[in-house]
Amino acid sequence: MSKDLRLSRMLHVLIHMAEYEGAATSQAIAVTLNTNPVVVRRTMAGLRQRGLVLSEKGHHGGWRLTRPLDRITLRDIHEALGPGSVFALGPARDHPACLVEQAVNASLAIAFARAEAVLLQELGSRTLAEVRQDFEDLRAGRSPHDAHPS
């Protein structure tokens, strides 16, 4: 099962966008992500619907952030990217009539729901500004700032 890299990739792009003088074109973002501009536009549309970015048409058009990085959480981006499980794990559906499979799936559903709630809480407590600071720390040769130690 492949991993969903959209969140990681969009966080990367948005932090770069904060540094741009102008708008970031879908083509430029596509080159960064090694993908097609159509995929970028489709992905960015969810961010636009949530009010995180705006798109400008024309010669100097492209994508811009609508607010500072300290007002965008990782959860904001996750939710804007649309539905999808945060885990690659899932219940088996090989034998739906089997009571053992039903019990296993019920137990896993509870565990996944609890784990997802914790993850979403963590994503909601971390901003893009904090991630950018981690980058600045790495660039300066320091260990990244960890605002939420275990």
From TrEMBL:
GO terms for cellular component: cytosol. InterPro entries: Tscrpt_reg_Rrf2 (IPR000944), WH-like_DNA-bd_sf (IPR036388), WH_DNA-bd_sf (IPR036390). Pfam families: Rrf2. Signal peptide: none annotated. GO terms for molecular function: DNA-binding transcription factor activity. It comes from Rubellimicrobium rubrum. This is Rrf2 family transcriptional regulator.
